[in-house]
């Protein structure tokens, strides 16, 4: 009995000492985390805080039905021109409140719900994020609050339509506040989706000296084809791409597509849709793209360099003088893109720990020229990973493909990570959703292992987190 008690006391003492060491280590590394969210259509609010507060984007079923009837009526009496005009009116009406002016500034009084202080000041918000199954940015925030403590977590939300360099100021404010409140020298940054554009604008404008580590999570670090192609006028529908999309998102309806295809209906429909898009492209771009989507400097940050000049002509035509102030904002980020790779490599060389997570094995939205790509159904894997060689969705790189580093070839031969900007610091998760970080999941564990590493993590450091993994619906991770 005495021996048992002695062993028990020894175990208690050992546990207490161990706990004390862990607690001391946690306190010694006071590195707050700043989370930069991605695009949030539903987060835009008109007249916030007043009796007239309402969502900026409101798609009410009744209004849609009335719009459809209006379009059909116009088509009945005006033929195809009338029908197209009616559809343009519907789309324009839905998105009109989001239009910016010719300078790229909001027209309506649109704001977002912001969190200017540490998340410990918003306990109800954090509690709601901790609910089972919480994913995306709320999952990131909830997990960070558990690991860092809510007083060390700062969440940057913003009006994603506007100039990335305006959002960069918000990021800078949170960084400085975090450093001041915790007497720290550095912060960690997790930037999600479009937040990758905003965070790079922050680096460009304010430098990276205050950053210990940065994780690009499903991030638009290299922009996006699904934004860039339509801005440059590269739109259209492809039979195989459309089938892949429908068969993946509506898998139980594959039989219907097959039947329609056997009857020759799909070819006729696609031909009609492509001819319609081509015939009315100029009208659609003049009335919708130029007046609404084209006025968002935030999305211009997704534009591919090779498409940029053509996109300006496509959107603005001969009215570039009218949009000179907007174009000036757009040009600033494009000028950063020209030096981006050297800039990011320089960051890492100067000691900033950079990691990337990209998902794949989902089809892209099937309406633009490069929609054959592999994606997480929002952003393209090639661009989220900063340059991986990725086979089109549903295909492989082939049995004869030879990677520069065979260890960087995914087991399914879909991805060659050796061409990435950071080949040793980029992780790929098959079947995971966009901004994958479900609260309580193994993916969330990976995210915060990366961001919390004392040294630059690599794909060879942790046997639990190899470069290529699979995720199930609960975001548990598995080896191939």
Give a structural overview.
It is built from 16 helices and 15 strands. The protein has 480 residues and is α/β, with parallel strands linked by helices.
Mean pLDDT: 87
Cα(first) to Cα(last) distance is: 50 Å
Sheet with most strands: 8 strands, mixed
Q: What is the CATH T-level topology of the domain at 32-39 and 111-223 and 338-478?
A: Rossmann fold
Give the overall silhouette. Answer: globular
> Hey, roughly how much beta strand do the residues contain?
5-15%
What's this entry about, in short?
The protein is α/β, with parallel strands linked by helices and 480 residues long.
List the defining traits of the structure above.
480 residues, alpha/beta, 15 strands, globular, disordered N terminus
Topology:
Blueprint: H1 2-28, E1 33-36, E2 44-46, E3 54-55, H2 61-95, E4 110-112, H3 123-129, H4 136-148, E5 153-156, H5 164-182, E6 187-192, H6 195-206, E7 211-217, H7 225-231, H8 239-249, H9 254-262, H10 265-279, H11 281-289, H12 297-300, H13 305-316, H14 324-349, E8 353-360, E9 362-363, E10 374-375, H15 381-384, E11 389-390, E12 415-416, E13 426-430, H16 442-452, E14 468-471, E15 477-478
Parallel strand pairs: 1-5, 1-6, 6-7, 7-8, 8-13, 13-14
Antiparallel strand pairs: 2-3, 2-4, 9-10, 11-12, 14-15
Helix pairs in contact: 5-6, 7-13
């Amino acid at each position: 009995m005495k021996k048992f008690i002695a062993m028990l006391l020894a175990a208690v003492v050992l546990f207490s000492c161990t706990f004390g060491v862990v607690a001391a280590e946690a306190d010694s590394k006071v590195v707050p985390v700043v989370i930069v969210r991605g695009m949030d259509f539903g987060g835009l609010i008109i007249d916030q805080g007043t009796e007239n507060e309402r969502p900026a984007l409101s798609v009410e079923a009744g209004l849609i039905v009335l719009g459809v009837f209006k379009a059909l009526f116009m088509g009945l009496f005006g033929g195809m021109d009338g029908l197209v005009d009616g559809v343009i009116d519907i789309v324009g009406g839905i998105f009109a409140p989001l239009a910016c002016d010719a300078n790229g500034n909001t027209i309506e009084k649109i704001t977002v719900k912001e969190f200017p202080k540490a998340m410990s000041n918003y306990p109800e918000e954090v509690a709601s994020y901790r609910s089972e199954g919480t994913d995306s940015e709320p999952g990131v925030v909830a997990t960070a609050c558990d690991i860092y403590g809510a007083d060390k977590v700062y969440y940057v939300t913003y009006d994603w339509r506007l100039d990335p360099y305006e959002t960069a100021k918000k990021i800078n404010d949170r960084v400085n506040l975090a450093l001041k409140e915790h007497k720290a020298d550095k912060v960690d940054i997790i930037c999600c989706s479009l937040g990758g554009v905003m965070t790079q604008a922050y680096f460009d404008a304010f430098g990276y000296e205050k950053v210990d580590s940065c994780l690009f999570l499903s991030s638009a670090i290299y922009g996006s084809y699904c934004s860039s192609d339509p801005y440059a006028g590269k739109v259209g529908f492809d039979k195989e791409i459309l089938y892949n999309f429908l068969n993946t998102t509506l898998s139980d309806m594959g039989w219907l597509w097959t039947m329609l295809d056997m009857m020759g209906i799909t070819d006729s429909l696609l031909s009609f849709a492509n001819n319609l898009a081509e015939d009315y492209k100029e009208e659609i771009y003049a009335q919708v793209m130029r007046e609404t989507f084209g006025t968002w400097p935030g999305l211009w940050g997704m534009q591919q360099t090779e498409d940029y000049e053509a996109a300006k002509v496509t959107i603005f035509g001969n009215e570039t003088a009218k949009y000179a102030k907007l174009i000036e904002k757009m040009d600033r980020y494009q000028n950063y893109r020209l030096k981006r790779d050297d800039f990011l490599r320089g960051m890492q060389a100067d000691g900033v720990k950079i990691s990337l997570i990209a998902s794949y094995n989902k089809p892209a939205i099937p309406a633009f020229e490069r929609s054959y790509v592999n994606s997480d159904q929002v952003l393209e894997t090639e661009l989220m990973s900063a340059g991986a060689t990725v086979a089109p969705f549903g295909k492989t790189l082939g049995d004869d493909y030879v990677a520069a580093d065979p260890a960087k070839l995914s087991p399914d031969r879909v991805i060659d990570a050796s061409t990435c900007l950071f080949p040793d610091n980029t992780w790929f998760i098959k079947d995971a959703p966009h901004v994958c970080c479900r609260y309580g999941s193994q993916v969330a564990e990976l995210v915060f292992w990366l961001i919390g590493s004392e040294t630059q993590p690599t794909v060879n450091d942790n046997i639990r987190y190899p470069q290529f993994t699979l995720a199930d619906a609960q975001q548990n991770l598995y080896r191939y």
